Amino acid sequence: MTQQETNTEKTQAEELRIGAFICECGVNIAGSVDCHAVADYISTLPNVVTSVVNKYTCSDAGQAEIKKAIRDMNLNRVLVASCTPKTHEPIFRACVEEAGLNPYLFEFVNIREHCSWIHMWEKEDATRKAKELVRMGVARAALLEPLESSEVPVTNKALVIGAGVTGMQAAMDIGDMGFQVYLVEQGPSIGGKMAQLDKTFPTNDCSICILGPKMVEVARNKNIEIMSYSEVTEVDGYVGNFKVKVKHKPRYLNIDECTGCGLCSEACPVEVPYTEFNEGIGTRKAIYTPFPQAVPLRALVDKVNCIGCGACIKACERGAIDMDQKETFSELDVGVIIVTAGFDVYDPEPKNEFGFGLYDNVITTMEFERLINASGPTMGKVVRPSDVKPPKRIGFVQCVGSRDKHSNIYCSSFCCMASLKNAQLLREKYPDTEVYIMYMDMRTPFRMYEEFYNRARDMGIRFIRGRPAEVTEDENGNHNIIARIEDTLTNEIVNLELDLMVLSVGAVSPESTEKIRQILKVSRAADGFMMEAHPKLKPVDTTLDGIFIGGMTQGPKDIPYSISQGSACAARATRFLAQGKALTEGITAKVNEDICVGCGVCVPMCPFQALSIEDNKLKIISALCKGCGTCMAACPTGALEQSHFKNVQLLEQVKKVFAYGEV
Amino acid sequence: MTEQEWTPKIVAFCCNWCSYGGADTAGMGRFQQPASTRVIRVMCSGRIDPLHVFNAFLEGADAVLVTGCHIGDCHYVNGNEKTRVRFEFLEEMLQQLGLEPERLHLKWISASEGEKFANFIKDVTAKVKELGPSPLKPAGVK
């Protein structure tokens, strides 16, 4: 007999003494549920020794009361009826453990999210339901058994997926704390979208001038290994012990030999639109370095457009080019994973929103950023696509692909400031330009942002509250844009003739991020971005231990907020690395060998290869078992059980949903 | 309680990672629902044994809901795919027992789909209200 079985028997032999604590959560629960009536009803149930109401059970005072009751009344089961176990179960488990009770002898009942908040105006129904939910919990509590969670060692290395400004910050912070980081970037250079921007609000400092040195710093950090042009293809394992497979896409040159000198590009006869970095404005060669400040500053071959002429091979003085290069794979062992995979800008083309895709002189913010960027395809000269002439009247349309029931209902949060910034840059660079911003609401929270908005107004930028209801091209063939707008402040219909119209497009989660999300099994929020463990208390954690999300991966946000989240991810993740150990759940599969007939039906059910048949008996490797319980439902003899979710426990809970007579 | 006021009793099995979170999100969003449902949390929908579902009916459930993560999103790789197979078996058994198909549902609900969860409860409750109490419900059970 194992130690655990001895413990179990001992507990079962003991007299059951259940303590129930009903939380009012201020008025969150008490507003709809008569908590005292619940406590009174629960006190009548078998094995319940005490049943009390707390204003806030999770508060210091509430937890102290639980601990005192465990000691004074010799409780051996504790039930709390309050909010959701997803946020508060660890708190109460720790609380009962401090008072000497096994944490798995704690039972949680959700009477807030699952009751008071969804029956806000039906107090009678809500109270009855709460009584029943707690009754089910009491029945389950009586059958709980103590379990031990096991400590697992943590590989003290981190993986950061995505090397935009958020991922760079996370990698640097972890590296500076003395741990090794693999920084995996799908593109050929680190830097992300910020590298494409011209200037950044609210200081209007040049984006690459502040990002470039940071990129160099990342490359110089001894603890960071950059894996550019690489993708995470498989992730296995759990907190502390992730096994990651990374695919390195072929650049068709030896990265150690290439110096980024650019002779190959000069020799290459193929020119194609530069979509990856310049939004399709201007061209690049079939062999190219991503941009002048790229890290690593190495060339790559675009095999789709390469004609195989060999001019680059002849031009390369170091013989770096290898057209037969194949993709390679690395296997990494890491303890924690941070996802900072960034965003895509919303694409207005499929629906030709505001004439985009129909008229040449309707462009997106990102295209505008490249146009006004001093190192962009026009060397910073703003010209309109139809005739390459400088525009005199420019309009910005806000909320394209954001705050729109037909695309995305969320606010992308950075676009108001981005347009204000671009409008200011235009007025500074070309003072005789007329600049209009067509908006629903200007949203400018955070330090110096509202001041930035005021400055834009002072600079003569004109604001029209309303967005174009109709966009057409003028009939004279000079490709001017006519935007018909209702200014809702003056109640006037305006027909605005513009030389160039810029759509302030929002952020969407990229398809490549969705792939990573599915590999990691992180939850997806309704807006398509990855979901945090708690919107306020755990903004960069996920529900999966050891996996964190930051920057745009978690939702649209601006640069300062993204960098803060990068640092937050690093801090949260490093807790595991610094401790060198993590706790795993005690909930696993158990087999009763006396009943098991060794049929093996359960074996293929396990997605983690934790089950095997040896000598006609089932063998479970506990370290591999993640406690999902899928194998038990397949067991024809009932030999398999999932601790903490045993059949008897679940069936008793089901049984106590129902009762004879009124509650 | 008069006949008109009769509220069905529905047992909903929810997985820890997705549909339980969906029920939480419904609460956070204050999506009001009839007080018909009692949620039972399991780690994975793959843990839901046909035995649990039949037991719920035998104890007095007017409807049983089996819920989990969307296919491809299972926290345990593919537990929900096994749930789907078992559910087909359940549906067939239910038919043989003579229960209306509207009393058993399988639904994938993510942790962010609070409104979907609430609407699901509303729809099933309304449908089961029309059907009346389950014929398997023991007499006198509330």
User: Averaging pLDDT over every residue of chain A, what do you get?
Assistant: 95
Multimeric state: heterodimer
Unreliable sequence segments of chain B: none
- CA radius of gyration of chain B: 15 Å
| Shape designation of chain A | globular
Provide the low-confidence segments of chain A as ranges: 1-10
Q: Share of helix among residues of chain B?
A: 40-55%
Treating each run of at least 4 consecutive H or I residues as one helix, how many helices of chain A? 17
> Count the strands of chain B?
4
Please list the strands of the largest sheet of chain B in the order they lie side by side. Answer: 2-1-3-4
Distance between the termini of chain A: 42 Å
Summarize the biggest pleated sheet of chain B: 4 strands, parallel
Largest interface: A-B, 57 and 56 residues
Shape type of chain B: globular
The major beta sheet of chain A can be summarized as:
5 strands, parallel
Total number of helices of chain B? 4
Explain the overall architecture.
The complex is a heterodimer of chains A (about 675) and B (about 140). With about 675 residues, chain A is α/β, with parallel strands linked by helices. Helices cover about 30% and strands about 25% of the residues of chain A. Chain A has a 5-stranded parallel sheet. The longest helix of chain A is centred in the first third of the chain and has 21 residues, at about 125-145. The radius of gyration of chain A is 31 Å and the shape is globular. The two termini of chain A are about 40 Å apart. Chain B has about 140 residues and is of the alpha/beta class. In chain B, about 40% of the residues lie in helices and about 15% in strands. Chain B has helices spanning about 20-30, 50-60, 80-95, 115-130; strands at about 10-15, 35-40, 65-70, 105-110. Chain B has a 4-stranded parallel sheet, with helices on both faces. Chain B starts with 9 loop residues before the first strand and ends in an 11-residue tail after the last helix. The interface between A and B is large, with 57 and 56 residues.
